[in-house]
Structure formats: C-alpha cells, structure tokens
C-alpha cells in the first residue's frame, strides 16, 4: 500500500500539550506541517511552539469537533487520553496510532498478555481484584513481587512492593479498590528500551537500544550504546515488530525491558510499552539525523521512515524539579545539548528539561 | 563583566518573521525562552513556532511600544530593519546586536571601509554617485568590475557587471540614482564564510569555515569541511574577532570571503558581513551540538557561548522555489536532515527550505 504523504501545510492535531507534544510540534514544523494542540492548561509547553491551542478537556465534544475540522491527522502524546475521545475522532479522520494501541497500553494486564501471546518473555504475573486473588497470584509469582494498578500508573504511582506475605494487606489497600496485577520481582542486570516506528506501509525500524537508570521510579539517564551486545538489539527489534504488526500500529512507540543475564548473553523481559514518543528516546534528537519526534511525524503523515543511524555516543539526563536551575552551568559544557520544556513552575518530581551529552562514536 | 543570563521564561523579541526567525524561535524555545515576532505578514514562518506575533510594519510606533513592553531583549533576523526602529527600542531595552552593527551592514561602503581599516583585505573598490565617479572608480578597480547599490541589495539584486567601458552607462542606470560602489571582479578559487559569535562578556568563537557555491546569485550549497586548510580558519576567525570587537557586537554574525590562491596558501578577501544568523550556517543545526541559532540565543540572553565543535561532515543545500516539492524523495535518503520553512507559496527564487546531508567526520 502506498499512500501519498500529507502535503506540507497540512495540520497535525496533538492531544496533550506537555514536553513530548512540544518536541513533536517542533519536529512537525521542521517538515512544514502545522500543529493544533488540545490541552486544558493555557500556554501548555507544546502550545508555545504550535500554530494553535484548543484549551479544553480531552473529551470536550466541542473541542473534539474543532480538532476534527482543523486537522488532517491526529496523534497523542500520552497514553491516558480517554479512549472514547480517540474513537470519536477515528470515525472522522485518521488518528495515528489509533484506539487499539491505546486500549492495550492503558491496561497492564492486556499489555503483558499481549507480549506473552506474541512470544515475548515477561516477568511472571497474575491479575488481582480480591484478597484471595492476591494469595493465588503470590503462589504464581513468588516473593518479592510488585502489585500495580492495571490502569493510570506512571513514574511509580499506583505501585506497592510485597516482600513478605504480611505486606499483602497493605499492598492491596494501596490499590484503593482498583483492578491490579501482581508481578514477580525481576533480578535484572539493567533496564533497556527500544524506540521503534512503524510506517503507514508497514515497515518497522528501531533506534539503537538505550540503557536506562531510574531514580525514585522516574527515568534519570538513558545511555547509548547500552552495555548489551548486538543480540539484544535483534531481540528488541523482533519484539517491537511483533507488537507493532499485531496492533496495526502507525507511529513511534517504546518498549521497556528488563535485561536478565543468561550465561554470556542477556534475555529481555518486556516490562511495558508506551504508544508514543518516549523519554528514553530523547537522546535521538542530539545523536541522530532523524529524531524520534521527526520519525513519529514522518510515520503519521505517511512520509518514509527516516534513517535511525546514530552519529555520536550519548547520555541523556533528565532535569527534574529544581535541577533545571543548573542549566546555566550545563551550558558551559562541551557537547551538551540542552532542552528546557518551557514550564513555568519547577515542582518536585516534575520533568522540567533534559540534557544530552554527546561524545565521539565508539560502537 | 559578568551579567546573570536572562531567566528561562523571559521573552525575546525578533524583528522579522522569516525562516531565520523561525529557526531562532525554535532554538529559543529549546532553552526555555518565549518569543515575540514582529512581522507585517500574518502567520509568518517564525510566528508559527513563536509564542506571539505582532502583525505590523517594522517601524510602527504602537508595535514597537508593544515589543518594548513584552520583551526582555530584542534581536533581528535581517539587516534591512529600519535603524530608527532599532534606536528607538535601544533607548528602552537591550537590542542585540544593536544599531551600530546594523548601520554598517546596511551600507556596503561603510562595511568595506571598516574591513579595510581593521586590516582585512577586500577587493579594490570605490564609491560611485555620478558618471564621473564611475570613471574614476574604474581606474581604481580595473575591469571587469561589479557596480552595486550601497544599500538594500541581497541575492544579486541591485548589481550590474561592467566588463567593457561601454557597459558603464547601463550599469549606472541600473542603480536608479542610488549611491553605489564599484568593486573589482575577484578571480577567486572559492567562496567561504565563517559564522562567529560574540558573547556579552566579549568572548568570540566561530564554527568551522564553510565553502559556499552560489547559483543565480543565491546560495546553493555550503560544504564543511571546506577545501581550505586550517590557516583559512585562523585568518577568518581573526577577521571576525576584529569586526565583532570594533562593533561591540553581541550575537551571531557571518563574514563572507573570496578565497584567492596565493602559492600553496589562500588569501581571504572580505566580501560582506551579515549581522545575523546566516544561510551558510544552517549546516550547524545538523552537524553540531549547538547550532548557530542556539548560539545567537545564548549570546543575546547572556548564556555562555556553546561549543562550536562539529560531529559530522556535511553539505547543506537550499531548496529554492519548487525544489521544495522533492522533499518526499529527500526523506528517503540516509543522513538527510530536512528543514521546511512553512511558507505557503513556492515562488521562483524563494527560499522554501534546506536539506543538510551529514556523513562521517573526516577532517
């Protein structure tokens, strides 16, 4: 199937106006596309570099009508967009990626089941609604394990660790009655992720695997190349391809893995997927000719996918809360590529910017 | 002198809303600054990625008052801004670079005299107001020579070549009564330019010299590294430093040179300077951690100047008029970094976008 790409000057709607939308909007502009941001917060980070913002809730009917009228294609920058809003839009114009991927990504249980059904490995897991489910689940996973709400969790929110059986009650209580999933604790050597893209024609390609370090459940650094060998890249790409084809996916997505040592090699266990550009792919903007943001715009507009080659080694570091105040010092560093998200207030735990330090390519 | 840099969230006014303003606005956003564009054309390319546009003439008093009220610093993206407007703003807030550089850059005669006074070489030249001036000037320069209006010429406009004495009358007529300068024709081996920056603290640094090819008087390609040796880089930087200090310059500027073979070496003759980011520096966005656009924003906000190191070799090619329609094919090329300026209409001779092709660094 070959479809003519959207003409420059066409409008891309982006649901969500945070830093991911901001970087998408700039990538769209560089390819000559206009952008319309839907976000309830006035002067959202993305809106500051977009042609237009609709200030409204994500499921506001008038706002969605306006999006459908103004835009040639719609995408989203976070996975907690109401599925009903995306389905409503999908009936009127292309939404890429669509509601199918969104539904899976909004539910940890569907996500893990999909990965396992596609032949990928995951940590042992079991669904938990009641106290007796939890007992059965602990028998499956063993301890320690982590209980997580199936929906709306991010950056460690909605999670409770169970180290000994007597932690079970408190963990279940922390779920506040929401459907949950118990996952076996994985003794991983490192966490890695792959940022891949599937084009309108079905082609899939991926950037180099990044090695990620989290702090307080929030991504701290992503390093490329990772410590893993080329076989990890092959494994990761294979899993990404299977997921993307299964979901009829169009656009960029991320798959996060635990890498477990297995003799001389590593096995990758799927942790979770994100149906969008991803924090662990920000390094591509500094170290590749085509960034994950441009790649996503290329995919959803029907342009050919870009080359994912990397010209430099790099380490991306998030600037969280008042770490953003170090930007003046960072600006003195050789090879530092700075990105400030234009957020007015530096609350603790809030992603305010990032810096990618590039160095000569070694591998 | 050490001044605290402008805080993120501060507003930068940009006079002129073309592609240079567009790339400046995106660089400003990446550093967390807001932008206000002054341009008479609604939805100007820069305004599409800026926080705000004031749609008015460059010398509109109400618009200038609004700029002064909204902005913390003002800059410009083209050198034909009315000097009076910049002087009016300068009395109220920092304008970087200021009116001093603008006056020189608006007058070819002042520009060449300054270069010569600073010890740089230029082609032989002489001022021409009348027919008898022209005879005297031809005696200075010899033939062939090029007669150019001293003001408002760009991309070959306002120029007439004099090959034989009998071409003189027509050439003078082409100046339409404007003050002109006759320049000796230079048998150059190549044309090169240097993109340099001077910070608030007086530090000066430069990107690698680019080798430029023009077609129909419009820049066609810029290639880095150039064919010239490291001595050309040293020469070019020396001249740039002298000019910048002389003008108390703050920001990025370009100096274009003719490179003339001189035995094993090359001599550089100053052709002209531009008190702004420059088309022959667009390659920096694809091949350096810090682009000329970010460098300019760093300079005018008081941030330290960025490292000008280059991670890749590259060739930047302008996409003029309907060449922009090839963007879909270019998107299939490995290593191609695309920039589309968001202009609605592809008129002949109009700069619509550019592509930078990066390859592994060789020198």
Automatic annotation (TrEMBL), chains A, B:
Pfam families: ATP-grasp, PurK_C, RS_preATP-grasp-like. Residues 112-301 form the ATP-grasp domain. InterPro entries: ATP-grasp, ATP-grasp_carboxylate-amine, ATP_grasp_subdomain_1, PreATP-grasp_dom_sf, PurK, PurK_C, PurT/PurK_preATP-grasp, Rudment_hybrid_motif. Its EC number is 6.3.4.18. GO terms for cellular component: cytosol. SUPFAM superfamilies: Glutathione synthetase ATP-binding domain-like, PreATP-grasp domain, Rudiment single hybrid motif. Catalyzes the ATP-dependent conversion of 5-aminoimidazole ribonucleotide (AIR) and HCO(3)- to N5-carboxyaminoimidazole ribonucleotide (N5-CAIR). Belongs to the PurK/PurT family. This is N5-carboxyaminoimidazole ribonucleotide synthase. It comes from Hoeflea phototrophica (strain DSM 17068 / NCIMB 14078 / DFL-43).
């Amino acid at each position: 199937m070959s479809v003519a790409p959207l003409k420059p000057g066409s409008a891309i709607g982006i649901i969500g106006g945070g830093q991911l939308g901001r970087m998408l909007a700039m990538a769209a502009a560089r390819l000559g596309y206009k952008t319309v941001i839907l976000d309830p917060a006035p002067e959202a980070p993305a809106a500051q570099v977009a042609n237009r913002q609709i200030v409204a809730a994500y499921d506001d009917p008038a706002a969605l009508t306006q999006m459908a009228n103004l835009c040639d294609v719609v995408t989203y920058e976070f996975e907690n967009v109401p599925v009903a809003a995306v389905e409503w839009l999908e009936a009127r114009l292309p939404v890429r990626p669509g509601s199918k991927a969104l539904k899976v990504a909004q539910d940890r249980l569907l996500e893990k089941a999909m990965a396992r059904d596609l032949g990928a490995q995951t940590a042992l897991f079991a669904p938990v609604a009641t106290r007796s489910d939890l007992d059965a689940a602990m028998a499956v996973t063993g301890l320690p394990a982590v209980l997580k709400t199936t929906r709306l969790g991010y950056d460690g929110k909605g999670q409770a660790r169970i180290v000994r059986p007597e932690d079970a009650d408190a963990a279940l209580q922390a779920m506040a009655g929401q459907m949950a999933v118990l996952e076996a604790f994985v003794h991983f050597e490192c966490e890695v992720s792959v940022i891949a893209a599937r084009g309108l024609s079905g082609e899939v390609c991926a950037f180099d695997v990044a090695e990620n370090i989290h702090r307080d459940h929030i991504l701290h650094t992503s390093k490329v190349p990772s410590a893993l060998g080329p076989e990890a890249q092959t494994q990761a790409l294979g899993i990404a391809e299977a997921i993307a084809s299964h979901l009829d996916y169009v656009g960029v997505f991320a798959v996060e893995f635990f890498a477990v040592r297995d003799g001389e090699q590593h096995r990758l266990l799927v942790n979770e997927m994100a149906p969008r550009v991803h924090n662990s792919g920000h390094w591509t903007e500094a170290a590749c000719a085509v960034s994950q943001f441009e790649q996503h715009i290329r995919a959803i507009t029907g342009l050919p996918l870009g080359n994912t080659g990397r010209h430099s080694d790099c380490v991306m570091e998030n600037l969280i809360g008042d770490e953003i105040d170090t930007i003046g010092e960072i600006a003195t560093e050789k090879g530092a590529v700075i990105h400030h998200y234009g957020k007015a207030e530096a609350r603790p735990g809030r992603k305010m910017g990032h810096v990618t330090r590039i160095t000569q390519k070694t591998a």
